[in-house]
Give the backbone structure.
Amino acid sequence: MDRPAVILENNVTVYDFYLRHQQNRQVARLAYATLARRFRPRVSYPDGAREELRRLVYDNTRLLIAVNHLTENDPYTLAAAAWASPLRPVIGRTRVLAKDELFQEPKQRKRIDMMGGIPVFRGKNHGMRAVSAAGSRMMDVSAERMKRGDDLAVFPEGTCNLEDPTTVQHVGSGIGHIALRARKLGVEPVLICIGLSYGPTTKVKQASVYIDTPITELPEKPIDITRVVAQGMQKALDGAVAAY
């Protein structure tokens, strides 16, 4: 399958490709295992959360994973944590939303595609009006992939937090709209909020990763879902900071 150029003007073809694209699960698992050995995150949970997450994965429940964003290495930290957690079985069938710039350099794009990336054309780069149709298509594709059996990981802040790594930034409403679109397709996703902390010296290796209790019931409206996501992310981030 030929990979189309990831440019805004080509977004229809781009999202048609990522609606069908499937990475090699064996290669993905090997890469995630390698990242786990390299980054060695310390994963913690509140009481009962690990067991509940394991049950959800075993039951093949669709997961909507929301993670705070601190550095460009966060996807690798998240991958390493997934290998070291009950999320290991979903490696190779999890989509990860990633900014379109990451798909420009061929070698990097190959890595992002291997990790299940779906490009996002951001308004801050292209203008809100220009990305409106592409954003809607991205949300449709994300929801459809969940219907087909994939989970979805999102960094809803949309940019690295360079000001206060202990406080979640503004959470965009896109994740709420994706959840609603998935529901309209017959999928009831469970929200998994994950907090990342690299400590006061922002050491990427041995990050503190806190996987909070799954949220199994989400509101009806996207704005209310987004509010639940923001609150859940802050709770997870507080847990990661406390466990560092």
